[in-house]
Write a structure and sequence with these properties.
- By secondary structure, the chain is an alpha/beta fold.
- It contains 7 helices and 12 strands.
- About 30% of the residues lie in helices and about 30% in strands.
- The strands form 3 sheets. It has a 6-stranded mixed beta sheet with strand order 7-9-10-4-11-12, sandwiched between helices. A 4-stranded antiparallel beta sheet has the order 3-2-5-6, covered by helices on one side. The chain has a two-stranded parallel ribbon with strand order 1-8.
- The N and C termini lie far apart (about 40 Å).
Length: about 240
């Protein structure tokens, strides 16, 4: 049964989507505590297009997992739309993640047996906060990304660029406050990558907040702000 979600009014800065405050993250391997992120402070504003860059092992993916409510910090605070993720239950966290955050992955993460249209609808099965019919909403989003004529095709019948367009449409189905994109052009040729980044620019111009992980300086140039991570610390902000 589809769950509906009522957004809680944000407390604090009304222009802020996410506040990361003094966050540390470490993992225990045997008897050893391995630090990944150290004293991360970051504010992401409504309508911002932010790129997070850094070498392999710098903590980019860990930070994205924390911002995306896929994990919790070892200490420090992450506040999303006025909610401290360390102070809500796992169920509340899952609903927050499903309704307020849209994910776009390098490998698309589409379900092979489902059509493009069904893949876009998929996030609404667990959480849905729009009044419009999910099917109508999914069709509108596929039109937005230029895939009206391919909506009934399965991922194996689509190019890499088309699969990423499906993934972008899927990320928008619940009208999230934030879109998180992890190396969104990593599996695409340069021309297709430019097409995808132009879609991101259009979404950002429409008011979408986007946080993008990338190792590519050319891709990072599309963002209005770039944060560099090195050895688990922010070099500049």
């Amino acid at each position: 049964m589809t769950k509906t979600y009522q957004h809680e009014t944000s407390v604090g800065d009304s222009n802020s989507i996410i506040d990361v405050i003094g966050v540390n993250k470490s993992y225990r391997i045997g008897n050893t505590e391995v630090p990944i992120l150290q004293n991360i402070n970051l504010t992401i504003k409504k309508g911002e297009f932010l790129a997070i860059m850094g070498p392999s092992g710098s903590g980019k993916s860990t930070l994205m997992n924390l911002i995306g409510c896929l994990d919790r910090p070892t200490n420090g605070r992450i506040i999303i739309r006025g909610k401290d993720i360390n102070k809500i239950s796992d169920n509340e966290l899952a609903i927050l993640r499903g309704c307020e955050i849209g994910f776009i992955f390098q490998k698309f993460n589409l379900i092979p047996r489902l059509s493009a249209l069904q893949n876009v609808e998929l996030p609404t099965y667990a959480n849905y906060k729009n009044r419009i019919n999910p099917r109508i909403r999914a069709i509108e989003l596929l039109e937005l990304v230029g895939l009206t004529e391919r909506m009934y095709h399965k991922p194996t019948e689509l190019s890499g660029g088309q699969c990423q367009r499906v993934a972008i449409a899927r990320s928008l189905i619940n009208t999230p406050s934030l879109i998180l994109a992890d190396e969104p052009t990593g599996n695409l040729d340069s021309n297709t990558g430019v097409e995808i980044m132009n879609i991101f620019l259009d979404l950002n111009n429409r008011g979408r907040t986007i946080v993008m992980i990338t190792h590519d300086p050319e891709v990072a140039r599309y963002a209005e702000r770039v944060v560099h991570l090195k050895d688990g610390k922010i070099e500049n902000n």
